[in-house]
Amino acid sequence: MGFLDPNGAVLVTDGGLATELEARGHDLSDQLWSARLLADAPEEIMAAHLAFFRAGAVIATTASYQASFDGFAAHGIGRDDAVRLLRRSVELAQAARDEMAEDGRERWVAASVGPYGAALADGSEYRGRYGLSVAELAAWHRPRLEVLAGARPDVLALETIPDMDEAEALMTVVSGIGLPVWLTYSIDGDRTRAGQPLAEAFALARDVPEVVAVGVNCCAPSDVSAAIATAGEVTGKPVIAYPNSGEGWDAQRRTWIGSSGFSAVQAQQWVADGARIVGGCCRVSPADIGNIARAVAGAG
């Protein structure tokens, strides 16, 4: 995977896709979240990808985070159409990349594979411990992951994983899938959202050849530096970090609360700590990503 060339520069991934879509006037309050626009307004998803690329990101994360066969079915979308929409999520990011090709800069598409809890749309991805076995979680993830892989993104982004059980399930599913993978946990302090030690959580990916990077996302910026150190020490793999703005999600009110603690200065520190890929997650805008891209330009 070219963007993790050992001699390559630090790379900047995008920010909150849903954040940008909301800024463009879209109501994403239903259970499909940004995945609804795969059917209703695909051109807006492509526009959001372009906004992040133009700001300086070189990795686009697809609008498939909360997309699932169960979720689509609950909205009257059958399996064949769900497959088409999952593939479309990758195709839109690829089309945005193609539109930027004239500047000669290399860019990549990461197919977002969100956790089981995201499909529940009740905040479970910030808790984990769903009551499902590793085998049940693997069976749930496998069909959509295979569809996304079939659309040939550059990497599968297993992201916002709150629980070691789910990570173990995903490691089973990606074995032999034929694409590189990154694994990022959502954390609280020095533990997963489910309360497990990060060293144990990262160790699950250490010997999985498909996993080319590990790290954290969808967490407080203040938790990132320590996690970078743990991820690198435990796995020896490149580290990726893309936290939220620092605001907190109120699942009952379905709104963000608190104030932002996100800055490009912090991103410079993450690079100094050893991160090879940096960016943002929820509530991180193209302008924020632009600041990061300028701050880490030339780092490597």
Number of helices: 12
How would a textbook summarize the main sheet? 8 strands, parallel
Compute the separation of the termini in Å. 16 Å
Rounded mean pLDDT score:
91
In sequence order, what are the helices and strands, one letter per element?
EHHHEHHEHHEHEEEHEHEEEHEH
Helix content: 40-55%
Strand line-up across the major sheet: 1-12-9-8-5-4-3-2
In percent, how much strand structure appears in the residues? 15-25%
Helices and strands: which structural class?
Answer: alpha/beta
Based on Cα principal axes, name the global outline: globular
DSSP E strands, number: 12
Low-confidence stretches are none
Radius of gyration: 17 Å
Task: Offer a concise description of the structure.
The protein has 300 residues and is of the alpha/beta class. It is built from twelve helices and twelve strands.
Molecular structure report:
With 300 residues, the chain is of the alpha/beta class. It is 41% helix and 16% strand. It contains 12 helices and 12 strands. Strands 1-12-9-8-5-4-3-2 form an 8-stranded parallel sheet. Strands 6-7 form a two-stranded antiparallel ribbon. The protein has a two-stranded antiparallel ribbon with strand order 10-11. Helix 3 packs parallel to helix 12, helix 7 (134-150) crosses helix 8 (164-174) and helix 11 packs across helix 12. The two termini are 16 Å apart.
Topology summary:
Blueprint: E1 11-12, H1 17-23, H2 37-40, H3 42-55, E2 59-61, H4 69-74, H5 79-99, E3 108-113, H6 116-120, H7 134-150, E4 155-161, H8 164-174, E5 181-185, E6 187-188, E7 191-192, H9 198-203, E8 211-217, H10 224-235, E9 239-242, E10 248-250, E11 255-257, H11 264-273, E12 275-278, H12 286-296
Parallel strand pairs: 1-12, 2-3, 3-4, 4-5, 5-8, 8-9, 9-12
Antiparallel strand pairs: 6-7, 10-11
Helix pairs in contact: 3-5, 3-12, 5-7, 7-8, 11-12
